[in-house]
Amino acid sequence: MSSHQETPESLIRKRARDRRAQQNRRDKRAAYVEALEQRIIALDSEVQSLRQICSGLRRENDVFRERQEHVQRIVASWTRHIPLQCDSDNSLTISPIPESVETSSPSNVICPGIEASDDRDTNLAYSVGDQLSPGASATPTSQLCLRPLEELSLPQWSLIPVHIDSSPFVTDYFQLAYTRPDLVRASPEPPQPIDLLYGSKTNFLANTLHEATRRWPCRDPERLAAGWLAYHMIKWMLDPSEERFSRLQEFQKPVPEQLCYPHPFFVDFIMWPALRVNLIKNQHTYDREDMIGMLTCCLKVRWPWNKPFLLPTDDGQLVIRPDFYEIFTKTEGWGLTREFFNQYPVLSDGLDTASIHYEVF
User: Fold this and answer.
1) What pLDDT does residue 260 have?
2) Is the link from the previous residue into 168 a cis peptide, with omega within 30 of 0?
């Protein structure tokens, strides 16, 4: 029998200590499990982000591979017209031009897909005779176009931005516009401001833009101005013409990066060309839907609060005030609140953020 006999008070204290120890173990176990769960959630989010990046890179790789094969086919078609053969001294010369490319009248053999015309730039073709060795000769009327396609001086209005097919649109309503180019073409130019603000049963594109922007967390001036610019941009992209291209503001016209690198559709509607370039370069570093949401929250047109931006006409119509039009058709008339670049600092590269910053009072 133990010499030390526990008293009721000591037993109570011991049981209390045991309960506290057990509770501490349970708390530690619960905290550990919670930490593991949070870690799993974070890793799962990271995996999803990496999968999205990989998926985007695969799509870009497919686009680049397809373009490379297309260029290779073009180059191969050029070389087929200039067969090479070895002379006895192992030097390469160009064999005579096949009869299939000779003509009975002065003309040029143009690159595949490019038809000859009397008013074309003669600098686009090289004479085959210029490529021959000194001892060779060629019919002076037979010429080949050996310049790459980008040197064909295509008109700027015909160059459409390159998009990632599966990229999200600004909203589903923008996607609706792209799936019905026939209705977009039938939409009048220019639109009525009231149709962009409140919808229309007769103007498909204006109604589509109204549905796309009416839930934006911004004022009516931003909705109207952004809708007006997007209206003309979509009209041009879906049915390119010199006239429609002339309706774009200078800052809306695509920069080389938009023509060379596949990118999400929403990038083409950004007001600042340098910001469009940064969005294209860093498109795998941000969530596109979050980006669009932040952009619509932070985008502001520099127009005073409560100041009218529409004017009534004698026939009862409402038109855009000239001074308001002058504001939103320049990049200086737009701004972004500080939260945007705080959230996406990498996108400020090369931008004068001080001039873009919009202070909300």
Assistant:
1) 87
2) no
Closest CA to 174 of 200, 198, 210: 210
Alpha-carbon gap, residue 165 to 176, rounded angstroms: 14
SS3 of residue 86 by DSSP: strand
Per-residue tokens: 6 = 């526990």
b/e 339-359 (16+ beta carbons within 10 angstroms → b): ebbeebeebbeebeeeebeee
What distance separates the 2 farthest-apart alpha carbons in the chain?
128
| Ranges in the chain, pLDDT < 50 | 1-2, 79-152, 168
Which of helix, strand or coil describes residue 255? Answer: coil
Q: Could you tell me which residues are beta bridge partners of residue 301? A: 334
Our measurement of the distance from residue 199's CA atom to the centroid of its chain's CA atoms, rounded to an integer in Å, reads 26
CB 206 within 8 A of CB 193: no
Domain parsing of the chain, residue ranges:
156-356
In whole angstroms, give the CA distance from residue 134 to residue 119: 31
Query: Is this structure's pTM higher than 0.90?
Result: no
Residue 10's pLDDT is what?
82
Read off the pLDDT of residues 152-179 as tens digits, 9 standing for 90 and up. Answer: 467 888 888 888 755 545 555 567 777 7
- Residues 300 and 358: beta-carbon distance below 8 Å: yes
Distance separating alpha carbons of residues 20 and 136, to the nearest angstrom: 102
Strands 310-312 and 143-144 come out as unpaired
Q: For the purposes of burial, counting CB atoms within 10 Å of the CB of 266, is it exposed (0-12), middle (13-18) or buried (19 or more)? A: buried
- Residues 237-263 pLDDT 10s: 888 899 999 999 999 999 999 988 888
The enclosing H or E element of 310 equals: strand 310-312
Residue type, 15: R
Q: For 190-246, give the DSSP string.
A: SPPHHHHHH--SS-HHHHHHHHHHTTSSS-HHHHHHHHHHHHHHHHHHHS--HHHHH
